[in-house]
Specification:
Its EC number is 4.2.99.18. The chain is mostly helical and about 210 residues long. The chain is about 65% helix and about 0% strand.
């Protein structure tokens, strides 16, 4: 299976399984998405989706968020873990959005990554999901799949992102990263992995053996 065949096999299989993948994190605008993605660090999307309604009921915009104390934010988000760091980030980035951007979420990687507690992956999710800018956010699921599909060596998420962007067409990035996440969770988990149920990985390995 050459690169072109592998690309076609992966993208066509994912398109059949997940033709319209939903956004995993519940949100209503760029600000609530930014906060939800920040909260999802080392936490499941399902848990985040349980907590954000409680937080957003009190503050779903930066102006209301800064009316809360950092301690109040921390108490609400405690179940998602890393609450001291995350509450600090939410409180201070909300101030910055008001002071520097008129309360709006900036539409650039550089500006987003300069915000407290916002890394490259968070910025990539916001840019792709909220603003439609091509990006390829790599989480643990995508990192795992790129290694299993022999697209990247799995050394770092930075390398995985570079390799994914080289392998997949830019026009597919925003939808594809969601499709891979859903596929990884359902067919190729980190634990109790059954390769016979992993359609894509087993197909790639079978094609390799036939060479």
């Amino acid at each position: 299976m050459n690169k072109k065949e592998k690309l076609h096999f992966i993208t066509e299989t994912l398109e059949e399984l997940y033709p319209d993948p939903p956004i995993p994190l519940d949100h209503k605008d760029p600000y609530t998405l930014l906060i939800a993605v920040l909260l999802s660090a080392q936490c499941t999307d399902a848990r985040v989706n349980q907590i954000t309604p409680l937080l957003f009921a009190k503050a779903d915009n930066p102006y209301d968020m800064i009316k809360l104390t950092q301690e109040e934010i921390q108490e609400i988000i405690r179940p998602v873990g890393l609450s001291p760091m995350k509450s600090h980030g939410i409180y201070h980035l909300s101030h910055i959005l008001i002071d520097k951007y008129g309360g709006e979420v900036p539409q650039s990687f550089e500006a987003l990554e300069a915000l407290p507690s916002v890394g490259h992956k968070t910025a990539s999710v916001v840019m792709s999901t909220a603003f439609g800018v091509p990006a390829f956010p790599v989480d643990t699921h995508i990192h795992r799949m790129l290694e299993r599909w022999e697209i990247s060596n799995g050394s770092t998420v930075v390398q995985s992102e570079k390799d994914a962007k080289k392998f997949f067409p830019k026009s597919k990035w925003n939808k594809l990263h969601l499709q891979i996440i859903y596929y990884a969770r359902a067919y190729s988990p980190a634990r109790n992995w059954d390769i016979t149920k992993d359609i894509i990985t087993s197909g790639i390995k079978m094609a390799k053996k036939k060479k």
